[in-house]
Write a structure and sequence with these properties.
Number of helices: 14
Strand content: 15-25%
Number of strands: 22
CATH class of the largest domain: Alpha Beta
């Protein structure tokens, strides 16, 4: 393949997938291998036509001794001869079982730092058709789900791959026609790495025994699934918005009722989108995570599962909640606090508690709608009052019931999330529970027509108090 044929194919693929715009600042990952050399050369030839501003970036991991230094020398000379701006990062990376991923993380962290520093619009990488075939197989075996089968995306968050339509033979033919040398990375023949096993052993075996055209077939499959993925993503986005109950920085709540009515193939995308809302992107969300969430959806009660990057998912009655907060870990809760006599104001953990002795019940509508306020018969309440959290075996007589009920059963019936039950404040006197704060008073301290004095207890989170105070100040 000559220069004109290669450039025409490059432009055609780039226009089809809208990879570039005229005048953009482009960062090219340049290892010195055949693919990245062909990529940089093509962009250099197209520079004047499209007004690209090109910056090449090379990472020397110093893994291969003299070969690593010769790679860097080649890269520097290639860019110097063509007046291409170049930045080089030297790093000593130690070989380990996760070397490929570690090197990839270092490389992309570096590229993203450069993107911010130089206000780069596109990061351009030189993956070809064989790379696409290897990636598709690799992700299938890894279990990355529907999205993984589309392989490498032509454009993913402005990281673009314009050589995906070219096979390696086309790339080498192009370089040879231009008389361009390149560097061979001998580590690509090391079958210790999974990708190299796929490239050097599996695909050649498939070519010999099953299909000589396997690379092109896998490339076409990836193209089909890429379009399918776009369609499913669009459908799932609408379903996600319909299912979304609440969204904040740390939490995304979905209606499990709506989720259950959604086809499983779309549920995968809905979960991935919710995961992305918490994590910042959908990286590291795989099919096994989808299966975990599906199992969670069918369970009764509350259970929490752990996804990569500290994303937690649990089911709370009719809601499926994605969060960055691990609710399975109890907060630093105080054991208890004793109030020996009537005190107007004090604190317990992050709550402000106000007590008042009243002669008569306030004459207000909707008096009992505020669950954070309790009105008790003062004479039926025996100081000191203890504020604490639940203990095993706790029972009380909920208002409106003639018989006692286990506190645990009451909280379940009230649909208090499992991870919130230990945080509920319990007010007790010397004999009994008098108020399950935020829920129900005890029947034995209820006010009647013969009540002489009333004990009013109000609780309020201090964070809420501060927020309201700030709002009042802001309105002045």
């Amino acid at each position: 393949m000559n220069l004109n044929g290669f450039i025409e194919g490059f432009e055609r693929y780039s226009e089809k997938h809208k990879l570039f715009k005229s005048g953009e600042k482009i960062l090219v990952g340049f290892s010195g291998g055949a693919d990245s050399t062909a990529l940089l050369l093509a962009l250099w030839h197209m520079k004047s036509k499209y007004g690209y501003s090109i910056l090449a970036a090379h990472v020397n991991y110093n893994l291969r001794g003299d070969d690593s230094q010769l790679d860097e020398q080649f890269v520097r000379q290639f860019c110097f001869d063509r007046n291409i701006s170049l930045v080089v990062k030297n790093i000593d990376i130690k070989s380990n079982s996760n070397l490929e991923n570690h090197a990839r993380e270092i490389r992309f962290d570096y590229f993203n730092d450069l993107r911010k520093l130089y206000k780069i619009q596109k990061i351009v990488l030189g993956h070809n058709r064989e790379d696409q075939a290897e990636t598709l197989l690799f992700r299938m075996f890894r279990g990355s789900g529907y999205t993984g089968i589309k392989g490498i995306s032509p454009n993913n968050d402005d990281i673009v791959h314009p050589l995906l339509s070219f096979c390696r033979e086309d790339i080498l033919s192009y370089l040879e026609s231009e008389g361009i040398h390149w560097r061979e990375d001998l580590s690509n023949k090391n079958n210790t790495y999974t990708r190299n096993k796929i490239r050097n052993q599996m695909i050649p075996w498939i070519k010999e025994h099953l299909n000589t055209n396997v690379v092109n077939k896998l490339y076409e499959t990836a193209e089909i699934f890429s379009e399918t993925d776009d369609i499913l993503e669009s459908l799932a986005t609408r379903r996600f918005l319909k299912a979304q109950i609440k969204h904040s920085k740390d939490e995304c709540r979905l209606s499990s009722r709506i989720i259950r009515k959604t086809k499983p193939v779309l549920r995968y995308y809905v979960y991935k989108k919710a995961y992305s809302r918490i994590n910042g992107d959908s990286k590291d969300f795989y099919h096994n995570n989808f299966i975990e969430i599906e199992n969670l959806l069918t369970l009764e009660g509350s259970k929490q599962i752990f996804l990569p990057n500290n994303v937690f998912v649990f089911k709370e009655y009719d809601e499926l909640i994605f969060t960055s907060i691990d609710f399975s870990k109890s907060e630093n809760l105080q054991n208890e606090k004793e109030i020996k006599s009537l005190r107007s104001r004090f604190t317990f953990e992050d709550h402000r508690i106000i007590m008042k002795k009243l002669k008569k019940m306030p004459n207000k509508r909707n008096l009992f709608e505020d669950k954070n306020v309790a009105y008790l018969d003062f004479d039926k309440t025996n100081f000191p009052i203890i504020i604490r959290h639940r203990k095993q075996g706790d029972r009380f007589y909920p208002l409106g019931m003639k018989h006692s009920k286990k506190l645990k059963d009451f909280l379940i019936d009230e649909k208090v999330p499992k991870f919130d039950r230990d945080k509920v404040l319990i007010f007790c006197d010397q004999e009994k529970i008098i108020w399950l704060a935020g829920h129900r008073i005890d029947n034995r301290v209820v006010t009647t027509d013969t009540t002489r004095d009333i004990l009013k207890i109000k609780i309020e989170r201090m964070a809420t108090k501060k927020m309201r105070a700030a709002e009042r100040i802001g309105k002045r």
